[in-house]
Specification:
The chain is an alpha/beta fold. It is built from 3 helices and 8 strands. It has helices at residues 7-20, 63-75, 98-106; strands spanning 2-5, 26-33, 37-45, 49-52, 57-60, 79-87, 111-118, 127-133. The protein is globular and about 60 Å long.
Length: 146
């Protein structure tokens, strides 16, 4: 599978992520799913809150916002594919947390993206790593008696 995005759409999205740094930021992903790819046509701003600190932030949005994004995407002739959010601290990486997976599965996301975006203390430029994931629910553990 691959992710396909136009340079213009991707560039505008990256700039918005940089503008929100050092805070965590999330956007909805709209587009279409094909046999071998997810074709992203737009990243859309979501209504959300952030709690915690810059080192340990947590983005919060409710089911109503997810339903709104699904409805708006459908109205525009696309599908709500999922979300992408930033991990803006150098100690993090571009891997999803357990909460990221659980939230994405609950919202019916097909894909989720994580953008690790940070600056070294002595640098003026951003360093960025983006990875894409299929949301996974946790496995249930059943221990059988001997």
């Amino acid at each position: 599978m691959k992710i396909v995005i136009s340079k213009k759409v991707w560039g505008a999205f990256v700039q918005r992520m940089k503008n929100h740094w050092p805070s965590e930021h999330v956007e909805a992903i709209w587009g279409t799913e094909t046999i071998d790819s997810f074709r992203i046509t737009a990243f859309k701003r979501m209504k959300y809150g952030v709690k915690g600190t810059n080192i340990e932030p947590e983005i919060t949005y409710d089911d109503i916002e997810v339903k709104r994004q699904k409805w708006l995407a459908e109205k525009a002739g696309f599908s709500f594919l999922g979300t992408i959010h930033s991990h803006p601290h150098p100690k993090h990486d571009a891997t999803p947390t357990e909460d990221d997976h659980i939230s994405a599965v609950g919202d019916g996301e097909r894909i989720m993206g994580i953008m690790h975006l940070w600056k070294k203390k002595d640098r003026k430029r951003f360093i960025m790593n983006v990875l894409w994931w299929f949301p996974q629910p946790p496995f249930e553990l059943e221990i059988l008696p001997d």
